Structures are given as C-alpha cells and as structure tokens.
C-alpha cells in the first residue's frame, strides 16, 4: 500500500492574526513560560504562558523565587497573588521579545485558582499589547468573556462537552461574542493535568472525540457561531493522526493544541530529570485519578508520589463514631479518640501498622486512611504553610469565599502548590506529582527523540507541520 498523502494545514485567524493552527498548551506551574511560548509563537503558531504562579524574572533576567514571609494564611495568599501578577507580566515581556512579533501569545489560567480573575485582569493591564488571548479551564469561567472583552483580547474557554459550551454561552458569553476567539475541546480521557470528566461520564470508558466534536460544532451552529474555531486538545501528538479532522466539512475550522510534546524541547522550562522521566515512560504509566485537591480528575505519571496516594486509597476503610450493625469493633485512632470499624477490617489495620503506617486519619467521607509518622508531620507542615492557592481546597480545608470548606482536611490528597512548585523548579521527580498526557509513551517510540535527543521548538514545529 502507498503512503497516504498528508493534508496541508492552512493558517487560520486566531486572536486577530493568520497563524498556523498549532497551539502550545499551557501547563501548570512552570510547565510553559515566556521562553517556550515565545519560541512557539516565533514559528508562526500560538504560544501559551501558564499563569499558575508564573516565575518572576527581573529586568536583568534574574529569577526571583517565590518566597512567603507572612504568618497568616490570608496574607500569604496575597503574597502569592502579587507574585503571580509580577511573574505573569515578566513572562509576557519575555515571550513578546522572543516571538519577534510573529504568531500569537496567549496566557492560560486554572479558573479554580483563588483570585484567578484578579490575576488575569492585572496581568492584562500590566502587559497591555503583549498578550492576544486568554484560555481558561478547570471550572466554568463565566466572567472570562467580560474580562477579555474589556481588555480587547480574545478568550478561549476549555471545555470537554457541547453541554458545557452551551451553558457558558447562555449564562455569559452571548454578551461578549465579539472577542470569543474559539473553544478548546480537551479530551477528558487523554489530556494531561486536570481533566473535565463530568459525573455522567465513566473514567474507564473513553469516548471517541469525533462524535463529541460533531456535537460541539452543532451546538456552535445553533448559537450562531458556525465558523468559530474548535481547538482540539488532549492526546494530540502528530497531525498524521488527525487527517480525518482536517478540512472536514462536518467539523469546520479546527486547530490543534499540543500539551505533552512541547514539554521535551530545549526551550521547555521543566527540569532535565523530568524530561528524562517522560522519555522513559511506557504505555500505561500515566494514571487517570481523582487525588487532586481541586476535586477534578487529573492525569500524571505513576511514580513514588502517585503510587503512595494509590496505596493510601486502596487501604482505606469505613468507620462510624458510634456502633452500628456492621461497625462493632472499637478502634483507638488517637490518645482520646476511638471509632468503630467492621471486624473483618481488623487484619487490614494490623497489616498497615506492620508496614509502618501507624497514623490513622479520618477523611470527610467517614473513612480512615493510614500514614507513616513522617507523612503525617509533612502533611501538617504543608497545611500550616498553606497559601490558599485554590478557591476551594480539599487538602487544607481552605475556601477563598468563607475561609473554610466546612469539611475536615482530606488526607487522601496533597498540597498541589507545594508539589508542582517543587517539581517545576528542579525538585525530585519521584516524590512529586508529574503531570503528563496519556500519549507520553510515544516519546520512546518517536525517532525524533532517539538516544535522548531533545529538539528545539523550531525543530519540533517543523516536524509537526510535516506530519511527523
């Protein structure tokens, strides 16, 4: 059989300019920055700077670390917000200079970040003319259209279903249609980082993106936006995999967002150790799980950090504060605290203790989990140092609106700011969360990365255009 000829990927109007519809996905803390996004834009694509605690860089080019001085959490939170704003502006300036006026520069924000609206607003104020678009996911960003329109930049909600887009349009976006630049469809089963799985969808039963994209295009037609670009994200590796989606009259205008693949480039800000971890990853090494303190599903590489969270979950048992027909065995869990468990769970408790998991802690779901004394001390330390990075956090019990979620902190999860800041700035790749998409194993199969070769953004961009 002969080779199938690659379709030409034509330029598309994105954020007010004709560019290649190839977008660098914005990723977490230090996953994408001014250097990586500027290099991507320089090639004629769309670079995306993460606005989740972006690293501040001085005018002299020196990195200014994020350091907290305040003892009160609310004040540490303000330190975090101010650092993010300064960091976002400095990274936008770097990206603008590197891009040399080519392509487009977008910023990406986790909507569930506490004070995300303030960060976006003040970064757009401070980097006026340097940023062309804003993408937002992890929640329904109802105010995104208003903020972007007031600054005359385009906005791109990240959704995983036609229903989510319809809700956003009816409740908000219909009033700010002029600057709605497109919609990012992020596959909830294949994307790295946080995923948009709803309660109605089975995490173990992935659905084909084609039918979901058709439904999204139909929804856009019904609201009067038949030509609005759909940016396909999650599981995007090579354009050769998506030939049926390019120039497809049923789908209309589409662009492609590359999340995992740009992480292994010379310009990528992640550490060499993290890059090597991804190069060595095998199929099945990325786990879709719900340990994130946001409450969302997320995908990360299975390492020591994630393996321990899985172990903790597997050892979890139910309890009751008072005896019931099932819960009849009294179990002391603290010097002045005892609960009731099922007698058949006694062996599980003793096995956990034998393995060193002697600290027994309650969860908000009336279950017990087991930790080592060192794990418990570290957990207490991280909660004491909480900076209130999320609008609501299951790990610390923090709520931006009320100060507390009203639930006990959940020991089945972790401090997301601490672990992502650590791995994003050279920390241990086994003892931190390593976000990645489910196609990460393809690094090991792709000739471009043979012998641990790390390409430049220029090299990667050219390869993507060629369908490699």
Question: Could you outline the blueprint of secondary structure elements for this entry?
Answer:
Elements lengths: L11 E3 L2 E3 L2 E3 L9 H9 L3 E5 L5 E2 L5 E2 L8 H27 L4 E7 L5 H11 L6 E5 L6 H8 L2 E6 L2 H10 L11 E4 L6 E3 L13 H14 L7 E4 L20 E5 L13 H9 L5 E4 L7 E5 L2 H11 L2 E2 L10 E6 L2 E5 L4 H9 L4 E4 L4 E5 L1 H12 L31 H9 L32 H9 L3
Parallel strand pairs: 3-13, 4-7, 7-8, 8-9, 9-10, 10-12, 12-13
Antiparallel strand pairs: 1-2, 5-6, 11-15, 14-15, 16-20, 17-18, 19-20
Could you characterize the architecture of this molecule?
By secondary structure, the protein is α/β, with parallel strands linked by helices. It is built from 12 helices and 20 strands. The strands form 6 sheets. The protein has an 8-stranded parallel sheet. A 3-stranded antiparallel sheet has the order 11-15-14, with no helix packed on it. Helix 3 links the parallel strand 7 (104-110) and strand 8 (133-137). The longest helix is centred in the N-terminal third of the chain and has 27 residues, at 73-99. The radius of gyration is 23 Å and the shape is globular.
């Amino acid at each position: 059989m002969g080779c199938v000829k690659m379709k030409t990927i034509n330029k598309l109007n994105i954020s007010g300019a004709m560019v290649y519809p190839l977008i660098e996905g914005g990723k977490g803390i230090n996953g994408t920055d001014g250097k990586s996004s500027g290099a991507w834009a320089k090639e004629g694509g769309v670079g995306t700077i993460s606005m989740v605690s972006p690293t501040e860089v001085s005018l002299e080019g020196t990195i200014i670390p994020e350091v907290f001085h305040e003892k009160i959490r609310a004040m540490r939170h303000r330190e975090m917000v101010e650092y993010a704003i300064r960091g976002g502006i400095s990274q936008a300036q770097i990206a603008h200079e590197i891009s040399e006026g080519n392509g487009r520069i977008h910023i990406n924000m986790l909507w569930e970040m506490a004070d995300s609206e303030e960060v976006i607003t003040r970064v757009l104020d401070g980097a006026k003319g340097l940023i062309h678009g804003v993408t937002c996911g992890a929640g329904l960003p109802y105010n995104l259209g208003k903020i972007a329109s007031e600054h005359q930049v385009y906005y791109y909600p990240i959704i995983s279903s036609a229903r989510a887009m319809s809700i956003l349009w009816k409740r908000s976006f219909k009033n700010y249609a002029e600057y709605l630049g497109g919609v990012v469809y992020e596959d909830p089963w294949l994307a790295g980082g946080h995923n948009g799985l709803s309660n109605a969808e089975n995490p173990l039963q992935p659905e084909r993106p084609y039918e979901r994209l058709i439904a999204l295009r139909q929804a856009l037609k019904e609201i009067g936006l038949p030509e609005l670009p759909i940016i396909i994200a999650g599981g995007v590796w090579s354009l050769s995999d998506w030939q049926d989606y390019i120039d497809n009259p049923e789908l209309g205008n589409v662009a492609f967002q590359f999340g995992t693949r740009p992480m292994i480039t010379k310009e990528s800000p992640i550490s060499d150790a993290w890059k090597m971890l991804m190069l060595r990853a095998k199929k099945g090494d990325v786990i879709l799980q719900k340990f994130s303190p946001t409450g969302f599903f997320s995908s990360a590489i299975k390492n020591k950090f994630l393996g321990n969270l899985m172990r903790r979950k597997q050892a979890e048992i139910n309890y009751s504060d008072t005896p019931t027909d099932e819960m009849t065995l009294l179990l002391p869990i603290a010097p002045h605290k005892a609960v009731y468990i099922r007698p058949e769970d006694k062996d599980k408790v003793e096995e956990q203790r034998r393995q060193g998991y002697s600290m027994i802690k309650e969860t908000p779901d009336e279950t017990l989990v087991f930790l080592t004394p060192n794990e418990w001390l570290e957990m207490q330390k991280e909660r004491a140092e909480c900076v209130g990075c999320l609008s609501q956090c299951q790990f610390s019990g923090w709520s931006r609106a009320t100060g507390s979620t009203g639930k006990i902190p959940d020991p089945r999860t972790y401090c997301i700011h601490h672990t992502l800041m650590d791995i994003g700035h050279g920390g241990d790749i086994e003892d931190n969360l390593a976000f990645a998409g489910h196609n990460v194993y393809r690094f090991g199969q792709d000739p471009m990365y043979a012998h641990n070769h790390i390409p430049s953004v220029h090299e990667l961009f050219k390869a993507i255009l060629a369908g490699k």
